[in-house]
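Sequence of Amino acid permease (Bacillus lumedeiriae).
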Amino acid sequence: MSNVQMNSHHVSSASHFKRVLTLKDLVIYGIAFMTPIAPAYIYGFAAQSTGGMLPLAYLIAMVAMMFSAYSYGRMAAAFPISGSTYTYTQRAIHPHLGFFAGWAMFMDYVLVPLIVFMVGGSYANALVPSIPYWIWVLIIAGIITTVNILGIAMAAKTNQLLVLFMGIVVVVFVIFCIKTIVGGDGASALVSITPFFQSEKFVMTAIISGAAMACFSFLGFDSITTLSEEAVNPKDDIWKAAILSCLIGGVIFIVQAYVAQLVWPDVNSFSSADTALFDVAKAAGGAILATLYTVAIIVSSLTAGLTGQASASRLMFSMGRDEVLPKKFFTRLHPKYKTPINNILLMCSMSIVGAIVLPINFVAELMNFGGLTGFMFVNLSVIVYYYFRKKEKKFFRYLLIPGLGFLICFYLFINLSPMTLKVGLIWMVIGLIYALITTKGFKKLPPSIRNL
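Predicted 3D structure, token representation.
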């Protein structure tokens, strides 16, 4: 019996989800997680750190993520179950290494809804100051958690509407920026090489550091693979959705950064680096466009929160099913909606507490650690599983592409800030201690592996 058949049998013999997601749903899900308006979160600081060449940094980050998206797709075809990075590393390389891959991505997935609660609550409070920040956090958390409990089909329909709205806002923003540029209020010409290359300011280390930062905007395409057990055709659709969402998202980010750079060439003159794109929006379309952009940020907190919470809850479900987390708690599905209700409620509680007590910059710094660590594990999984274990000696598919994906992610990883690396490593040490205890010194294997 093949690995895929055995995995399918394992899934069918356990609690199962409803298969309702099409390719379109999966692509929208990935874009919703990344959010079309993601550059607003990092634009000011990233534009300044790259010397006004953020579009180049985004282009490098997109290429890097495309390699990893390909690897996620190959592993999803081999193991069409919901554990994503955790499952792929576990089955392809080693069961215990799979736990550490899942542990790293777990940090990433936990932080996504937490940071969007923060961002959404902050901008909603700025828009309606009479309602306190913590009340906005509870409102956003309540909406996201309710939709996720009602089921992935409901979440998918909600995401379609919200992504459509954000897409419209991005289009309006780009149109107003183009109008400003052509009208002579911004750069001298609509077509310019300066957002990608300025010889007098070009510093490779700064561009690479900016690309590492830009990876923040791409975190999310990988979450598509956590929905393999809810996809109608996971073997074909998961890999297509991962690559398409990464490509589409990258183009959206590059276009926004490009026109913003031309509208506001002096990246060191923003009123605040935290709200740089709002300065650009106001310059291009006045207070109305700036307000619309603020609303879109709040909406982005809903889409990213929906997808982040859903992905984390399904990752915990898979780890619970394999008994690397307490099985009884983490594998409980809602009797009617077939959603991992305990995991969703746990995620909600953690995100609310974190959003109220933690500083946003601390949370933002940690997200790329988990994401890039997971991407490296998955690229390695493709090489080990296909090229060495299955002996499919297709150099380009199963060695060169994932190898480049690993090397690029590793290079971006070592360019993260020292504080990010320090805290991330502490998180991994905590996981090591937990694994040593639960596996009795790595002597006990997960049931899913023992039964293969």
